[in-house]
Design goal:
16 strands, 26% helix, alpha+beta, 4 domains, 7-stranded mixed β-sheet, 367 residues, 9 helices
Length: 367
């Protein structure tokens, strides 16, 4: 009955919110899952909040405004080649004057990038052109609201609870071994907004953990929740370094684990050796899906592999298409091979066939 009253109170609090507000992308640092929540004022990336998650009220970090997530893609500056070298100097006029007055002699050979204009002098870096503030929107009743901004006491309590998680993991592992359960404990997490511990685990089969829960409740004296997750979710929760040398995408970039197929590797002419195209989780690399659409779209500008091209008086077969080097490898009779650029071919809409550009064919025959 008490639990029903708590949920009813939460529901009433959500319904009593105003009809207009700002929506944000909020990341849960414990599970690395993201959700969209609303607030009645402007918040900036990095702000700590206490927000509802699929597990209950917990600490969240504002990632960005969510009002632009469904907007059309806008291309960036194509002339950007790296970090902005004058980001610190692209300041408002008043701040630049203060910095110049307090700074020492400029370094030899370095010209300051100051101007008298109010507008930013750099048109490429986000430091000089920050993202616009989120816009206030008309909200539907389905949008969850941030419970409150995290206070210093909330952050202190979060640190205290985090320090207890290792001990909770040790106790839970002992109980799993005692009950001889075929399950692997991944991590434990104390919720900040309500008295509950969540234990994440993986298992190959269905596990009856009712006796385990009873033992844990008798020890911790608060609500216990056991969540079975997959191996890809385990990587998302724990994090680590991928084969590219960067943090797992599912841990640091997004929690949306899109399906990845072997077809994506074939389309990108990658080795089909599972050891080379699989991540530490044992599943195909998530990044295979990032460039798949680009390869599919770009290959429309090339003749398909296995097709025939008439080069002069010889009919040659397309053996390989390399969209990165923009080269097409051909093979002809008597073991002849030829590499031609993508610009040397075109699709003839009248004959419905790929053909060699006339200028290139004449140049080829003259050689």
């Amino acid at each position: 009955m008490k639990k029903e009253h708590m949920h009813a109170a939460d529901s009433r609090a959500q319904k009593s919110r105003p009809s207009r507000g700002y929506i944000y992308l909020v990341k849960n640092p414990s599970s690395n899952e993201m959700g969209i929540c609303a607030w009645d004022s402007v918040l900036y990336p990095g702000t700590s909040v206490v927000a509802p998650t699929r597990y209950g009220l917990d600490l969240g970090i504002i990632i960005s405004g969510a009002d632009r997530l469904d907007k059309a893609y806008e291309a960036g500056n194509p002339e950007v080649h790296g970090a902005c070298f004058h980001a610190e100097q692209c300041l408002p006029k008043e701040e630049r004057e203060d910095e110049v007055a307090s700074s020492a002699e400029p370094e030899q050979g370095v010209e300051p990038y100051y101007t008298d204009e109010e507008e930013p002098v750099c048109g490429s870096c986000p430091g000089c052109n920050p993202q616009p503030d989120p816009e206030e929107l008309e909200l539907s009743g389905d949008v969850l609201w941030i419970d409150r901004l995290a206070t210093p006491s909330d952050m202190n309590r979060y640190q205290e609870l985090t320090a207890k998680e290792d001990e909770a993991m040790r106790i839970c592992r002992e109980k799993i071994a005692y009950h001889k359960l075929d399950m692997k404990l991944v991590t434990a997490h104390f919720l900040l907004g309500e008295p509950k511990i969540i234990f994440f685990f993986t298992a190959d089969v269905r596990v009856d953990f009712r006796e385990l829960v009873k033992d844990l409740v008798s020890i911790f004296r608060i609500r216990i929740e056991l969540r079975q997750i997959g191996v890809r979710d385990e990587s998302r929760v724990l994090g680590g370094l991928a084969v590219c040398g960067r943090d797992y995408c599912c841990h640091s970039v997004t929690d949306k684990l899109n399906p990845v197929s072997i077809k994506m590797a074939k389309e990108q002419n990658l080795s089909l050796n599972s050891m080379k195209i699989s991540g530490p989780c044992g599943r195909l690399l998530c990044c295979l899906s990032y460039e798949y659409d680009f390869y599919v779209e770009e290959k429309r500008n090339y003749p398909p592999e296995g097709s025939k091209l008439k080069v002069g008086y010889d009919l040659m077969k397309v053996n390989e298409v390399n969209i990165l080097s923009k080269k097409i490898m051909l093979s002809g009779s008597e073991g002849r091979t030829l590499s031609i650029p993508q610009s040397a071919v075109f699709f003839n809409t009248d004959t419905k066939r790929w053909e060699i550009v006339k200028e290139y064919a004449n140049e080829f025959l003259s050689n």
